[in-house]
Every structure is written in C-alpha cells, then in structure tokens.
Design brief:
Strand content of chain B: 15-25%
Oligomer: heterodimer
CATH architecture of chain A: Orthogonal Bundle
Order of helices and strands of chain B: EEEHEEHEHHHEHEHEEHHEEH
Mean pLDDT of chain B: 83
Largest sheet of chain B: 6 strands, mixed
Strand content of chain A: under 5%
Number of helices of chain B: 10
Low-confidence stretches of chain A: none
Radius of gyration of chain A: 20 Å
Largest interface: A-B, 24 and 35 residues
Structural class of chain A: mainly alpha
Number of domains of chain A: 1
Number of strands of chain B: 12
Shape of chain B: globular
Mean pLDDT of chain A: 86
Number of strands of chain A: 0
Helix content of chain A: over 70%
Number of helices of chain A: 13
Strand order of the largest sheet of chain B: 6-7-8-3-9-10
Helix content of chain B: 25-40%
CATH superfamily of chain A: ABC transporter involved in vitamin B12 uptake, BtuC
CATH topology of chain A: ABC transporter involved in vitamin B12 uptake, BtuC
Chain lengths: 324, 325
C-alpha cells in the first residue's frame, strides 16, 4: 500500500515538473528543478513561479480534493457511483456559481463563495431528503440524480435568459478549466486543504467502520449520527472548494478512488491513495489538455470528461465480464 | 429496516388457519388465540434474578408506526435468552432497542443499571456486542481484516494494532472454526462460512453481552445447528450472556436457558423452556395448533404442529393416486 502511495506521489511530481517545463517557452526538467530550488535565472523564475507553478499546484490540490471527496461519498453510499459529481453536489456548486456570474455579476471570489454555498445547500437538501430508515446509500444516489437534473435545468434556464457576454463567461466556467489560475486561487485552496484534510484524517477510521453498514458500525461504537454528517460536511467542503476554484471538473471524484483501490488492492475507503490519484489524474489531464491540440489549451474538464467516460465504460464492461 | 420482512427460511412450516385441527389431537382446552390473559401465570417477571441488561417501560416505534408500548424486558445475567414470536411481533425491534440501535420514544434501556444512551458509544461496545440482521461485506475484504474490525472499540485515535488485538482475533477465528479461512476473501465464502465470520468479528469485540438478531436466517440446517452449538459453548465457557432472536421454536426450546415469547409488541410469557413452551402458549402466540412432546435427542420441549393433519391426509391420497397410475 505504501509503495503505491510513493509511486503515485512520484508520478504526480514528475507530471508537475513536465507541466511547468512545457509551453511556449520550454524549460528542461533539470532547469525547472533548479528554478524550484531557487537557483534559476530571472526569466525562468518568473515563468515558473508566477505563470506556471500556481496552475500546476491548483491542479494537484483540486484533483486531490476531488479524489478524497469521492472516496468519502463512495464509502458512505456503498456504491462506486456515489461520487459528488453524480449525486448533485457539483451541480449545486455550478448553479450557485452561474447564478453569481450571470445574474449577480460578482467577481472571482464571489463566484467561488456562491459555488461552495450552492454545493452545501444541495448536499443538505439531498441528505435531508434521503433520511429515514432503511439503506440510505442507494436512496441518496437516486435523490441526488433527481436534484442534479433539476439543477441542470435551472442552470440551462439561467444561461438562456441572460445576455450573451455573461452567458459565455458562465459557460466557460461550467466546462471546468485551469486556464489563468494564479496564486490567488492556489493559496486559498492550500488553506482549505490544510484545514479539511486533517479533519478527514480524524474521521478516517470511523468511515472505515461505516463500510460494514450502519447497524454493525453502531454496534462497534461508532456514533453514526454524528460521524456521517461530519463526513458529509468535510467531503462537501472539499469538492465545493475544488469546484469553486476551477469549475465543475467531471469524473475525477468518481474515477480516482476506484483506480486507487485497484492499485492498492486494500480494503477501506483508501483516502490517501484516492487523494494522490486524484492529484495525478487532474495534473495529468491538464498537461494532456494543454498539449494535445497544437492550437492550444483545451479546458481540463473536456479531457477528464473524455478520459473518465472511456474509463467508466471499460470498467463496467470488465466487471460485467468477470461476474457473468 | 423494518423487521421480519426477510423471507423466512428457518421457520417451521406452520399450519394455515384454514385447516381445522384433527379432533382429539390436542387433549387440553385451548386458549383462544390472541388472548394473553390465561398465560399470565407464566409471565413471572423474575425480578430477583440479577440482570445486566433491561428495558424499562420502553415504547418503540419506527416514525409513527408503534411496535411496542410500555415494554419491560429483563435479560437474566449468564443466560442464553431467546426471544420468539410470530413475524412482526416486535422481537427484533426489542433486540435492536436493547442493542441501542433504536432509541425508545419513552422509557429507557439500562446496561449495568445505567441508561445506555448516556454512556460513551465505545465503552458500550466493549461490553455489549451485536450481530445485526444485515451487514455489508466491504469489497475485497479478507476474513482476517473483517474480524479485525471487531477490535475498533478497543482502539484509540492513535493506538494502532496491538498484540492484544491480534490474540483476540486469533481466538475469535479459532472459536468459530474459520482459522483456516483467514486469508480468503469474504465474498467468496458460502453463507454458513460467512455467518461464522461475522460471528467471529463480534467475538473479537470481546464483550460479555452478545446480542444476535436472527443468526440462523439464510443458513442451511447443518449450519443453523453449528451456530447455535457455538452460542451454547460461548455461554458455557465464560461469563457471557447471550440474547438471540430465533424463528424456530424447537431450536429455541433446545438451546435457550430462558425464553421470552412476544406477540403484538408485548411479552406473553417468559421463563425456562420447559415452563414456557406449551400447546396453550404456542396457540396463543403463533395461532398454531400443536402438541408438545419431549425432543427425542435432548428431552427439551418439542412442538409438533397438528393443524395440517387433514391436508397431509389429502396429500397422501393424492400421492397414492399418482403412483397407482
């Protein structure tokens, strides 16, 4: 398991160095490392530290947040489809952001705030509606899908009603993109993770017990009624911050925990591996998205959507073949 | 989850009430079904017997659906108590309340004299274990890992796996006879093996009180007896108190030291099997006409249904007709 962690971390680092090195002004990996260690020329220092590094850091942090958040929700719902992008939290954040961009016309921080608020409100609506006795997992997912459809309709309506300029801005935001993400995005994200990830670490063991079902967990001394809402708040916080920073990036939260689990072959939510895998996936996707077309940057959301969709189809085909 | 909705595989094939009993099969006057009054003599609440777990005047409900009202229930210390009753009589609900899975609307459940809901969850989990009716097997978990999760209440935030945890797990694996499955994946096991693994997990918890919600459901008959033998051994080999919800009256009568019979959310009778399991009680609680004879293997009371006498005679005639053709 620790080997997998080390490999994932090393790969993320390599992707980061390559990403920083590529662009209109290529810098060799060794020069990137030298610059990062504070030994670069004035030119490379400017390019690396001001232009390219915040974007890569954003990708790593956002990807990590999405991976961790996905692992929490998949464990809570006992279902690999129970990731925040499927159960509506991402759409809640998106609706909040579009409302801000298209109607209220706030700046970048207002958009981020609205996204987090939208995600939280949606999360509590979905959770509240799915309460009751009985297995909450599948009900949460189904209600989440319903709410997603509703929010998607609201978002489309908003986009259709507002003037073209702000609709265009909102639409770009909705694709999920790392373009132009500087330190003003990376630093708040770093602060958010520095608070949320330690909280999640404290909740990791009870989360593992929740895998056994509510009754078994409760019988083993887990205070399910306190732990679950706490986990939901932390995980929504993670995916809300991620969405606020770069827009809704599809599939990372869904795929990262599943890929990580196949690599570690360990049981449990696998939060560390999922976080590292998310970081690697998003940073890797952004590198591909920037370099794939000679004309320049695709939004990273397009890339994760394409990769994630292909992965999901492959996964489902394979799992079915195995069981049938 | 609502209790008793699970398809019932363990219940003896009971008579249907459309078939009249064979006259003379039951030689005692029968209490009219559903009336508990004649059985009041059996409901000796045994207040003198020491108890570690009891429910005092609890009202139990799922949302607005009331299951029990003003229920008093005492589990004698050191007993193997079995709760029996027809489907939806509230026996699993009562067990869930004792195991703090369900918070009573009124009244309280006391563990060693203290209100159970006021005690720290982990502390309770070191005294009282529960084998729930439905648990989820995590993907790709091995027997060892699953049983190891039973050690959760003994672990702190920072304290990692200790040699004490290890020996508890090994004991539990050995006691349930699954030591040689240790490294197998739980989802590859048969139903009987899997149930023993879940039991091992609860045993690894090392609690003096052990609550089992229909531990024999979904098991074939061999494994049912295996699990019950194991329960009896657990009681005899230590200071453990066991409480189980069972469907099979004959198994209850054979293994229990104390039987609690419930109907419509209330206790109808309780006491040692020999006193409780009588034709009158069975008819009153289950609406089943029967005779009670000594179990040829153990001498404990054995319920033999009489209600299907006529139908089985008709079936015999039909079979004879078929073979004669």
């Amino acid at each position: 398991m620790h080997v997998v962690w080390a490999i994932l971390a090393a790969l993320s680092l390599i992707v980061a160095v390559i990403s920083i090195g590529t662009g209109e002004y290529p810098i060799s990996p060794s020069e990137v490392i030298r610059t990062l260690l504070g030994d670069g020329t004035q030119g490379t220092t400017f390019i690396v530290e001001t232009l390219r590094m915040p974007r890569v850091i954003c990708a790593l942090l956002v990807g990590g947040a999405l991976g961790a958040s996905g692992a929490v929700f998949q464990t809570l719902t006992h279902n690999p489809l129970g990731s925040p992008d499927v159960i509506g939290f991402t759409w809640g954040a998106a609706t909040g952001a579009v409302l801000q961009i298209a109607i209220l016309g706030g700046g970048a921080f207002a958009v981020s705030g609205s996204a987090i608020l939208g995600g939280l409100v949606t999360a509590f609506a979905v959770y509240g509606l799915s309460l009751g006795h009985g297995p909450t997992g599948s009900r949460l997912i189904l209600i989440g899908i319903g709410i997603s459809a509703l929010l998607a309709a609201v978002t489309t309506f908003l986009l259709a009603r507002v003037e073209l300029g702000s609709a265009q801005a909102a639409r770009i935001w909705l694709t999920g993109s790392l373009n132009g993400r500087g330190w003003e995005f990376a630093v708040p994200m770093l602060v958010a993770l520095a608070i949320l990830l330690p909280l999640l670490a404290l909740l990791a063991k009870p989360l593992t017990m929740l895998e056994l079902g509510d009754d078994a967990a409760r019988a083993l001394g887990v205070e399910v009624d306190k732990i679950r809402p706490a986990l939901i708040v932390v995980a929504v916080g993670l995916c809300g911050c991620a969405t606020a920073a770069v827009g809704p990036v599809p599939f990372v939260a869904l795929a990262a925990p599943q890929l990580a689990r196949r690599l570690t072959r360990a049981t449990g939510p696998g939060l560390v591996a999922a976080t590292l895998m998310g970081a690697l996936l998003l940073a890797g996707s952004d590198l591909l998205a920037q370099r794939l077309l000679p004309t320049g940057g695709l939004p990273v959301g397009v890339m994760t959507g394409a990769l994630g969709g292909a992965y999901l189809i492959w996964l489902l085909r394979n799992e079915w073949r195995k069981t049938s | 989850m609502a209790e008793d909705v699970v398809t019932d595989l363990t219940k003896p094939s009971s008579g249907s009430d459309t078939v009249p009993a064979e006259p003379g099969a039951v030689d005692r006057p029968l209490a009219s079904p559903g009336v508990a009054a004649p059985l009041a003599a059996f409901s000796s609440a045994t207040p003198d017997v020491p108890t570690r777990l009891e429910a005092k005047g609890v009202s139990l409900a799922y949302d607005d659906r009331v299951i029990s009202e003003g229920l008093d229930l005492r589990i004698p210390a050191g007993s193997f108590t079995v709760i029996v009753g027809p489907n939806a009589c509230g026996k699993s609900t009562a067990l869930r309340a004792l195991a703090r899975m369900l918070k009573p609307k009124q009244g309280s459940v006391l563990l060693d004299g203290q209100v159970i809901s006021s005690l720290p969850a982990k502390q309770v989990a070191r005294t009282l274990g529960l084998l729930p009716q439905s648990s989820v097997v995590p993907d790709g978990i091995t027997v060892r890992d699953l049983v190891g999760r039973g050690r959760f209440p003994h672990q702190g935030l920072l304290r990692q796996w200790s040699s004490k945890d290890e020996s508890a797990v090994q004991h539990a694996l050995a006691a349930t006879g699954v030591s040689d499955l240790e490294n197998r994946f739980v989802d590859e096991l048969s139903g009987g093996q899997r149930q023993r693994v879940w039991l091992a997990m609860v045993l690894a918890q090392e609690t003096e009180l052990l609550l089992l919600d229909e531990p024999t459901t979904f098991l074939d008959i061999t494994h049912q007896y295996e699990v019950l033998d194991l329960c009896a051994e657990l009681r005899e080999s230590g200071d453990r108190t066991l409480v189980a919800v069972l469907h099979d009256l004959n198994q209850a009568a054979r293994y229990a030291t104390h039987i609690i019979a419930m109907k419509q959310g209330q206790i109808v009778a309780q006491g040692p099997p020999a006193e409780v399991v009588t034709p009158e009680l069975v008819e009153a609680v289950f609406d089943l006409k029967c005779v009670v004879v000594p179990d040829p293997a153990t001498g404990t009371p054995m319920v033999v249904a009489t209600g299907r006498g006529e139908r089985s005679a008709a079936a015999k005639a039909h079979a004879a007709e078929l073979t004669g053709r």
